[in-house]
Amino acid sequence: MSAGTNIDEDDLPDEWTAQQREVFGRVFRFIYCNQDNVKHPKASSICERHWRTVAWNAAFVAANALCDTLLVLTDSEDEVVLAAEVPRGALQ
Length: 92
Prior knowledge:
about 90 residues; mainly alpha; two-stranded antiparallel ribbon; about 10% strand; globular
């Protein structure tokens, strides 16, 4: 699963710092190349295309966590919010 680890820098947010880009790349490659050690041990294998999306989304969240804003995942085509971080203390 190493052929899919290439990252097109144009797909990353322009406003990201060098540190965020580095974290994204490291987390993405780690998750993408280690499916058997990241997913639940009893879960079935996930097809390469879908696993790449899982790795991409996790790396995106990790890189965004380095800034002081709440984490939000949006659909890249129409900007619909797919997931958003719950502010600290909101679940108490």
